[in-house]
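Sample pair:
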Amino acid sequence: MLELLHIENIAIIQEADISFERGFNALTGETGAGKSIVIDALSAVLGQRTSRELIRTGADKAFVGATFSGVDSALAEELGIAPEADGTLLLQREIHNDGKNVCRVNGRPVTVSQLKALGGRLLNIHGQHDGQALLDEEQHLVYLDSFGKTEDLINAYTEKYKRFTEIKREIQTLEMDEAEKERRVDTLRYQLEELRRAKLRPGEEEELNNRRGLLRNAEKFLSAAAEADYALNGDDNGGGALSALRQAHDALGGVRHLDDGFGKLYERLGELYSEAYDIAAGVEDKRSELDVSPGELDRVEGRLDQLYRLKKKYGATVEDMLDYQARCEAELEQIEYAGDTLARLAGELTAAERDARQAAQALSEARKTAAGRLSAQILEELRQLDMGKIRFAVDFTEKPLESDGMDTVRFLMSANVGEELRPIHKIASGGELARIMLAMKNVLSEQDKVSTLVFDEVDTGVSGRAAQKVAEKMARISRHKQVLCVTHLPQLAAMADTHFSVEKGEANGRTFTQVRQLDRKQRQMELARLTGGAHVTETMLQGAEELLTQAEKFRAEMAE
């Protein structure tokens, strides 16, 4: 359960500590006092989307901390976050003016998404506008699947449906009209002919560029090579460096054994001669390379120009063009053999559709079973909310296979005896929507492990006897889950085990909000204010006292 909510610099709340208790906790206050700000702060620390606008004017950052007790260790460990040994979990979030968020769980840094995932396991917030979701029939299937816990069946169906749609797309791609097919075949054949005629080879362009560079400077290279050859080998009139090195090496050969110094010089000369000999051979090889035929440069230039023109059409490199050629060949083959492929795919489509439909049927049957249970539980909840004559049902209409199955689901109701079942959005009043949504939330909350439910002004449109029934329902829920409720109704506030007042004031030219827990006398005054406004009379106080007494009696009877 939520034990403590600490707030700093959130909107008009400079600082507040709210110690919540087990059971039913109510927050009341004047409109604009800051009740919903408390809920906003709670949403922030649970990882919900927020904004820097939430930061109090003049502050650099806002801070919210929430302490939960009795947290199931397995619940948190699924997310890699362990509570303290006593089951305590501390969630913290800092919101900075520059948009930066700092989140921690038990002092350990976490991401906002991790905080949100954990918060969703600890607490559920039902806002004042959530009842409008019932008017959106697309949400009805979501509610039903949540109640029925059909995740495994949905995943199984999704896999089959994905395969079914993939085959359909393949068939649609192949089933182009004949004119378009002929145009495409002509284009592919032309492109393939051009590419095949070019006889592309990986690495060819680099080789050609290197050869072109060599050919363009052939005269310079030949001159340099000739000079180097003359210097190394000499000519008919005289020897070159190789001859001189060999003579020096031979001269030292006769004395190399007589003196270590001459021996070492002899060896070094031998190494020099060997290296010079290799260099001379290399120069001769380069001269051979430069022995080019007439017109070779023109042929290289022409080939490079051809590759350039092809690259503009088919790819940035030779490798890209070869890849494009392979794709064209595959596509052409696919089109030419489309008849055979279509026949094969038609068989696969039939099998895939059968598998998807079977999975959809299994999902539909599970949904219908869950719908019966959901209707029964909601009707029981509505009976407790003074809507015993209402009829509620889940309507199924079969549709073609879609991503969510074969079911179109609508919630139907009849608010009056003798009236036929009709869509909720056509007949439900604001007060009825609020109670139906409360019933739905209670039923769904029983399916999960969330220990705390927050209701933010869900009593909109509810009054009189209906308000009393909603209050009693909240009290029943609070016997097995912690309930936090922001309300304007005295009936709900009176039924609470713990009552907080949210009050706005001014000090030092600034507006501030404080939250304080009320004792019984203070609760009587607050209930009288909720009943009659700012001018509280003795009669209002007596009425408030009666509300408190009746609520205490109801809670005592529940506890028996």
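The first helix runs from residue 35 to 45.
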